[in-house]
Amino acid sequence: MRSLLLGSRRRADKPVTILQVLPRLLPGGVERDAIGIAGAVADAGGTSLVATAGGPLITEVYRVGARPVFLPLDQAGTLMRYQNVGRLLRALQKEHVDLVHLHSRLSGWSVMTAAQRAGCPLVTGLNSHYVGDGDSGRRPTAVTAAGDRVLAVSDFAAEQLAGAYPAAIERLRIVDRGIDLQRFDPEKVTAERMVGLARQWRLVDGRPLVLMPARFLPFKGHRLLLEAVSLLGERDFHCLLLGFDVDGPAYRREIEALIGRLGLYERVHVATDCNDMSAAYMLADVVVSAATLPEGFARTVVEAQAMGRPVVAPAHGDALHQAGHGKMAWLVPPSEPAPLARAIAEGLALSPQERRLLAPHAIALVRARFSQHLMRRQTLQVYDELLKSRQPARGRSGDPTALVSSP
Predict the structure, then answer these.
(1) Measuring CA to CA, which residue among 247, 251, 339, 361 is closest to residue 288?
(2) pTM
(3) How many domains does the chain have?
(4) pLDDT > 70 in the chain, percent
């Protein structure tokens, strides 16, 4: 990525300051994307800030050259929302922030209000932030559509926004999510890393593994997968539910109790800690995405294919785009355990030779369409577009507002 030092509305020698906003830095895809964008801003010569209450990924903020601004953005309640407006406004003014990028609706009203009062342009991200129950009631939230630019992570997400908020279409930009192709590269995963994880999870050597990496949220389909596993009878395999608690441990404990009631405690296990997802995918014989509601970007589907692993996913949302042409991907009717069970069985039935022959196609598919480098570059181009619309040129060579120069 070639870049220019950034200009400013106030001083020609001060770079543009960009603030990413996330309530907490949990080890999820949205959070990692935001930190990656923060790093891209820093690499391009900008001052890069991340407003957050903290979390497990806070060290990553420092690693990419950004700086955290600690605020209690993960706290709910009317009083806290109003108090956070004041806290954010003071931070925007103190840090001379030029642009705010909101990645979550949780603190959205506070961020939107503070940005408006500070006269600061706002970028919002449309991932899978919906309200309502059931497919017919799901729509993007109003705060998502309120940005000066709205970034949709896929064509599917953009269609959701266009249907719910037609007035926002002119401000909508599609920036496909991407993954770190340096990290998700099967050639770079050593046997030692895989052995270490297998020991940590007490996996039996030679026993096939069905892996479901997903946050512990009801719509991610943990119950559905357990129903499918129970339909597979005496087939010998291990199933690992890998994720982290989002709203406390209550839902995960429900899933653990269901595992016991279904008599699957010897076959299905839960893990809540993994710092090496690349190695986790390489241990898997089949990777499952079982979301019962459409997702704007099914990260698991992309990451599994990048690692050359067979993947089973629901035939809705952006998974249709991500896995629709893959030779190691099965798309199944959403929320139906029997087709899910059959697809898992077919994936497990692939011979090692068939996997080796099909893996390069799946890997090439992802590398051609889901590059994190491209996602970051396109995001910075949206920043440039918005900054230029708010700031006249100052008569020196080059574009003083540019985060990214033309290729």
Answers:
(1) 339
(2) 0.80
(3) 2
(4) 88
